[in-house]
Amino acid sequence: MPGNRHTSVRSRQIANELRRYREKAGLSCTEAGAKLGVSGSKISRIETGVSGLQIEDVAALLGLYHVPAAERHTLVELAKSADQKGWWERQTGLPQNWKNLMEFEAKASRLQAFETTFVPGLLQTPEYCRAIIQGIDATLTEDELDQLVAARMARQIVLSRSRAPQFLAVMDETVLRRPIGGSGVMKRQLQHLLNVADASNVNLLVVPVSAGAYVGLHGPFLVLEFDEEPDIVYVGNHYTELFLEEDQDLASYRLALRNILHAALASGATGDLISNITAEH
User: What range does the domain containing 259 cover?
Assistant: First the structure.
């Protein structure tokens, strides 16, 4: 998926279901296209998300594949709502990369983040978040700053909903020692990390500076896993954002994460380290 194109999670789900039904029907893209009077490449584009979903195409394909009526109705309704916006899309003033990421986070069943610069957004306190955003862009007005902080705090709801994703957050120790917002802000942020680490769906680990050079020095990333859709990797920085879903990319980042985990402290030792750094404030 090119970094400058956003594919909704709903569209991805529908496309994957269409491919699954076609394969179950024993048809190739070319054969399915021939039966509907279109090219096989169009069927392929629909299934890969390259071509936008049209209700008529979805309904025709479901009929061709003899999908049961109840399932056809569910997918057609999903297709009708594929372009509906979540709260993050209706929110004005949010960067598009934030909106893209929030939509994927809202649908993920598992999140695995590695950070070298600051505490992951899903675990930030409001004042810590505010200090980061303001430090990155000092031109923001107070209203704009308030809006961005509020959006990031709302984004954290994903971790406390009834079907919350499992969240593995791995940070370099330098993240905990970088004095963002002053000593008081940092102390409260560190205490917050200790509190959220008690949640059953959160696993917090730290790579100590004593690990020296390790693969994580390449930079931060986030692996998002879905129950019914292909997994993706999010990589973002000041200049660009990428959502990667090729098998080779996923394999590379998963390998990097495994190597990072080998360098990380265990949960108990991580908690002790955070407690010790908190006490320094």
Answer: 95-279
